[in-house]
Amino acid sequence: VVTNQQVLSWLHPVTHASITRSSQPLVGASRKRSKEDEDYLSAILKANKYGKKLYVMDARPKINAYANIAMGGGYELDEAYPNMDFSFLDIGNIHVMRDSLSKLQDICYPDVDDQRWYSSLEATHWLDHIKTVLGGAVKVAEVIERQRSSVLVHCTDGWDRTAQLTALAMLMLDPFYRTIQGFEIVVEKEWISFGHKFSQRLGHGDRNHSDDQRAPIFLQFIDCVWQMTVQFPYAFEFNEHFLVTILDHLYSCLFGTFIGNCEKQREKLKVRVKTMSLWSFINSQLEIYKNPLYTESIQQVLFPSASIRKLELWKGYYLRWNPRMRPQEAEFERCRHLQVLIKLLREKCQELQEQQQRESQIATVVA
């Protein structure tokens, strides 16, 4: 049953501006109102003493939200929610995203057409969708950080586009989620625990390859994270290999982390008893997933550019199996080399510090 229950995702440690998520309001053709819902949103607004408005960001294009009215859904009525700002972020639905990925796959493998590469890539609209998702998350983060106001995010059901936006905004706002442990937590919390339908979206255990409920929603999220790591190479503890490993095992089913559509289903299947967690596998060999450029001491709020001029096709993932490309291995080896180099430099610094200390002690004795 789809409800409009609002759930807290993140709270600013200073201003108490919050990110709350939900599904669409069940307004319907009769334009129903809910006093409980109106009071709840008013309470979210009042809980933040700095914010003058509650910003409600609907991930959908407005025309899609309007179409949902006929099916009992819809969007908030302006007159029912005073002191609130409503906006639509124009992120396409699962069918649009699935079609875009299918076109991208066609141009990436087995052949890459060099002469028409850029026009073919543009025709997939994949980077346009990455721009829209990333840009929507930036808007959430800007309202929280710069306007010190709270945000309610929702789409239709609250488990696809909503998860993309809340998780990305949390990565921008909170440096903890940019660590390996923090990223694992945000995936567990915003995606797995809040009911992103992994099995249905990925087709786990389903031979119906034409199922129209499949969609690359989580892949898009990871792609957006990769775009952020490119723009802010010092801000993330993890490297590209970490993200690729997550995506590989998103589909492999070697681990139970992405099996099932919700907590109830995972409990019924006893996933946590019968399978190993992907995070246990990753955490057993952390060094290979660490970004050698990560600088913990200079962490701050990130506002990535969602301009199409700043976005890139993730060649290390989408083109890594093309015989003419193979970029992933080079990137991984470069990280390994940097890790070794940094280790040697730290050892040299330690050696010089100890030498300086010995020389100071000798000078003191002589004096």
Question: Could you describe the 3D structure shown?
Answer:
The chain has 15 helices and five strands. The protein has 367 residues and is α/β, with parallel strands linked by helices. The protein folds into two domains: 7-322, Alpha-Beta Complex (Protein-Tyrosine Phosphatase, Chain A), CATH 3.90.190.10; 326-367. Helix 5 packs across helix 6 (161-173). It is globular. Substrate binds at residues 93-94, 155-161. One of its GO terms (cellular component) is membrane.
Structural class: alpha/beta
CATH superfamily of the largest domain: Protein tyrosine phosphatase superfamily
Please describe the biggest sheet, giving its number of strands, its sense, and whether it closes into a barrel: 5 strands, mixed
**How many DSSP E strands?**
5
The CATH top-level class label of the largest domain: Alpha Beta
Q: Give the radius of gyration.
A: 23 Å
Helix content class: 40-55%
Quaternary state of this entry equals single chain
First-to-last CA distance = 82 Å
- Topology as a string of helices (H) and strands (E): EEHEHEHHHEHHHHHHHHHH
Number of helices: 15
CATH architectural designation of the largest domain: Alpha-Beta Complex
Which strands sit side by side, in order, in the main sheet? 1-2-5-3-4
Regions with pLDDT < 50 over 5+ consecutive residues? none
Mean pLDDT, to the nearest integer, reads: 91
| Count of domains | 2
CATH topology of the largest domain: Protein-Tyrosine Phosphatase, Chain A
Question: Quick one: overall form?
Answer: globular
